[in-house]
Amino acid sequence: MLSGAEGENLRQRRTQIMSRGLPKQKPIEGVKQVIVVASGKGGVGKSTTAVNLALALAANDSSKTIGLLDADVYGPSVPKMMNLKGSPELSQNNQMRPLLNYGIACMSMGFLIEESAPVVWRGLMVMSAIEKLLRQVDWGQLDYLVVDMPPGTGDVQLSVSQNIPISGAVIVSTPQDIALMDAHKGAEMFRKVRVPVLGLIQNMSVFQCPKCKHKTHIFGADGAKKLAQTLDLDVLGDIPLHLSIREASDTGQPVVFSQPESDEARAYLRIAAEVVRRLPPPPE
């Protein structure tokens, strides 16, 4: 057994060794607060949520400037959802300028490769691409940068979390048990890297028949609420399973922009307000 002093010295030594390999967090120039939208698994509507959250933040407060970063290198979907095509121009200091639509500044790997081209890269190349998306983009001045993270809890999530200060993470899940298992892992991952989790969004929460108005919980009911209780978090809001959300995303006219008075858009607007309410004060 080690004495108290020896044990404390050993713990300090371990801490020093572990900290050597971790990059120091450096803010993105011009960006006040970063909000990451994540999910434990794919197919739960994370990108649709990220796009509409960015638009809802702008709709709730027109004085705020919003950016949207698509960090899903393998499956970028922001270009299609935001109806954007083309390559970013370069600024005088050789940084990429985001593409703009609906008042949102957007950057995505999808602007740098052909739409149908697969990204067949190993981890180091993906990390290099993420570094460029984080450090070589001229965002100007942003109040909020919404980051659409890839699904899962891998290299990209760790790299983003360790390289830049994140004001808060939002976890998206359907009420289905399989999705909730992975959402639980995603929330715990952010806690381990000391990123505050603002809450959960329960997507595809209920389907209402457009003819008879009968409501069906296709993926189960209140699963995210039960998980939120387990994690001591709040549910920021429910998004219904609705045809208009899917159609609006596929046509590049997100529902918050194209149908601002709809119940679906109002759900995103309420969630955006809850997100802002939970954010820490922005740095001066």
Secondary-structure element order, as H and E? HEHEHEEHEHEHEEEHEHHH
Rg over alpha carbons: 20 Å
Largest sheet report: 8 strands, mixed
Approximate strand percentage: 15-25%
Number of helices: 10
**End-to-end gap:** 48 Å
Main sheet: strand order: 3-4-2-5-1-6-7-10
Assign the structural class, choosing from mainly alpha, mainly beta, alpha/beta, alpha+beta, or little secondary structure. Answer: alpha/beta
Mean pLDDT: 84
Q: Give the helix level as a range of percent.
A: 25-40%
Low-confidence stretches: none
Counting DSSP E segments of at least 2 residues, the number of strands comes to 10
Shape: globular
Question: How would you concisely characterize the structure shown here?
Answer:
This protein has 284 residues and is α/β, with parallel strands linked by helices.
Notes on the protein architecture:
- The chain has ten helices and ten strands.
- Helix content is 39%, strand content 17%.
- The protein has helices at 4-20, 46-60, 78-81, 123-135, 155-163, 177-192, 223-231, 243-250, 255-258, 263-278; strands at residues 31-38, 66-70, 99-101, 104-108, 142-148, 168-173, 197-202, 207-208, 215-216, 235-238.
- The mean pLDDT is 84.
- With 284 residues, it is an alpha/beta fold.
Structure characteristics:
284 residues; alpha/beta; eight-stranded mixed β-sheet; globular
Q: What is this structure's SSE topology?
A:
Elements: H1 4-20, E1 31-38, H2 46-60, E2 66-70, H3 78-81, E3 99-101, E4 104-108, H4 123-135, E5 142-148, H5 155-163, E6 168-173, H6 177-192, E7 197-202, E8 207-208, E9 215-216, H7 223-231, E10 235-238, H8 243-250, H9 255-258, H10 263-278
Parallel strand pairs: 1-5, 1-6, 2-4, 2-5, 6-7, 7-10
Antiparallel strand pairs: 3-4, 8-9
